[in-house]
Amino acid sequence: MVQEYKIILLRIPPVSKKISPALDRGDATNGREYYEIKVSVLTGSNDSLNIVQIRPWQKIDGYHIFIIDSENDFQIYHLFLSPEDMKKELKKYGTHSHIAKKPNEENEYVEWSIHIPIDEFDDFVNAYYVNDEIFI
To answer: Are 34 and 61 in contact (CB under 8 A)?
Structure first.
């Protein structure tokens, strides 16, 4: 199933080419713009939508987020957030990811996660949904 997601993600216009993590510019580029790609699976046991390892210091042009709803025939939602949108959502829903109990608040290179409560899921999706026909 992971391989299927890779195929779907590589079909995102305008993203066409995976890039080296050493560039620290997200996951993919079309040669002009750089994007981070995030995938989250929503299950019946989730009480929130979780998007993890967000790196707000990266110089990217946006975030392509795919939500796979396992409770709704594996429907896939494609969302797009600009860096400004992501900063707004980090303020509202953000927490640090993968860090010690006492984070270094001065370190700007800390990964973040956002956790959107299930009862706010529809509003979040409606705000950033990309109406595309890339899925078969």
So the answer is: yes
